[in-house]
Write a structure and sequence with these properties.
424 residues; UDP-n-acetylglucosamine1-carboxyvinyl-transferase, Chain; 2 domains; four-stranded mixed β-sheet
Length: 424
């Protein structure tokens, strides 16, 4: 499907209700499923990625009742052992489903086959699989350590000292942390080369919310006492700051203002909240009051240099803003994004160049120069964040068309409806 973005003549002034965080929703779903008792989750995100996890949990025998209208669900926990001992799990394109459930199934006796989309089949799994096998699980019919594969859970993980390379994805670390309470002996988890570590901080905080203690020994080492068990609870999901970044940028690029629902910026569990600080450096004003969280754009954006290793999911948002700044913008420490839904560095550079924007690409960086973007067709490469980021340019430049725009359903199915709403 092609989506032409409607350009606006002046500054926008809008209010948007941002859906729940995908990262928090999927962690809350899994922790509830592993808990003892019944949990109720509110403001969950209803999207391809979260529905994939819900379907997978149901396939494993977990009772999950979803009310899409109220964006809530009830989960009956299985106390760490899935009711079904044999199942086929379709992960769609969701890395969180593949990584988190692989680990959970490795800790539960049974035989579980995993597969996903062609896009997910290309994403790395080897570091996680090797670690799970060292803990007693078995992987059979694997395709070069990627999906499709079958994992056979043993009688629980061994525990003890575990090391994991986090250079490809922080999801490997989060997956191991969430199953650690079920190990036979206390776990001392050491990670190195970790990217996007705020997601690991989020995982630890949410484990605590569900009743499990995680002790951070130092920056790269975590201690999880055993035995511990997750406790069911009612849990409200924060608005998704990754999704909010596009809407805040709409205000930034048009010199307008945009408000989302009230949310505690300074106590958020999401690392992507840091994008607000980047907007402030570019000249935006951030207002937090009882009406909500508001970004007010400046008359002229300023170029910035930002290390985005810890919040790389929004580097494409910044790259789309950068051509409208008064000086070059440099984004560094993002090499790991080459193995996300697409090779995000090269895809972003290619898309910008298609629109006559001057950009330079390095192994782990992009540099975007002030430019006058021209109309054109942008390939999304079925990457939701690419499609949403280029919508920002479309607000300022008439004739921006995004191919395969339906990919936004991965994290924000109604994105373009909301986007048209703010541009009216």
């Amino acid at each position: 499907m092609k989506q032409e973005i409607c350009a606006v003549a002046g500054a926008i002034d809008a209010q948007v209700q941002i859906p729940g965080s995908k990262s928090i929703t999927n962690r809350a779903l899994l922790l509830s499923a592993l808990a003892e008792g019944v949990s109720e989750l509110s403001n969950i995100l209803i999207s391809d990625d979260t529905l994939a996890l819900i379907d997978a949990l149901q396939e494993l025998g977990v009772i999950v009742q979803v009310d899409k209208e109220s964006q809530s669900c009830i989960v009956a926990g299985c106390m760490g052992e899935f009711p079904k001992k044999e199942a086929s799990i379709w992960c769609n394109s969701a890395g969180t489903v593949a990584r988190f459930l692989l680990a959970a199934c490795a800790a539960s006796p049974g035989t579980y086959r995993f597969d996903g989309s062609e896009q997910l089949r290309k994403r790395p799994m080897s570091f996680l699989l090797r670690t799970l096998c060292s803990q007693g699980a078995k992987v059979v019919d694997a395709n070069s350590d990627k999906l499709p594969l079958t994992i056979v859970g043993g009688e629980g993980l061994r525990g003890g000292e575990i090391e994991i390379d986090g250079s490809k994805s922080s999801q490997f670390v989060s997956a191991l942390l969430m199953i650690a309470p079920f190990a036979k002996t206390p776990v001392l988890l050491t990670t190195y080369n970790l990217v996007s570590d705020p997601y690991v901080v989020m995982t630890c905080a949410m484990m605590g919310d569900f009743g499990v203690r995680v002790h951070k020994m130092h920056q790269a080492r975590y201690s999880i006492p055993t035995p511990q068990r997750y406790e069911a609870r009612d849990y409200a999901i924060e608005p998704d700051f990754s999704t909010a970044s596009y809407f805040f940028s709409a205000a930034a690029v048009t010199g307008g203002r945009l408000t989302i629902q009230p949310v505690d910026r300074f106590n958020s569990k999401q690392g992507d909240v840091e994008f607000l600080s980047v907007l402030e450096k570019m000249g935006c004003q951030v207002i937090d009051d009882e009406r909500g969280l508001t970004v007010k754009g400046p008359s002229q954006l300023q170029g910035v240099s930002v290390d985005m290793r810890k919040f790389s999911d929004v580097f494409m948002t910044l790259a789309a803003l950068a051509p409208f700044a008064n000086s070059p913008t440099t984004i560094t420490n993002i090499e790991h994004t080459r193995e996300h839904e697409s090779n995000r560095i090269s895809v972003m550079r290619e898309g910008l160049e298609r629109l006559s924007i001057k950009v330079e690409e390095g192994k782990d960086w992009l540099k975007i120069f002030p430019s006058q973007p021209q109309p054109g067709i942008v390939e999304s490469y079925q990457d939701h964040r690419i499609a949403m980021a280029f919508s920002i340019i479309g607000l300022k430049v008439k004739g921006i068309v995004i191919n395969d725009s339906e990919c936004v359903a991965k994290t924000c199915p109604h994105f373009f409806e909301l986007w048209e709403q703010i541009s009216q």
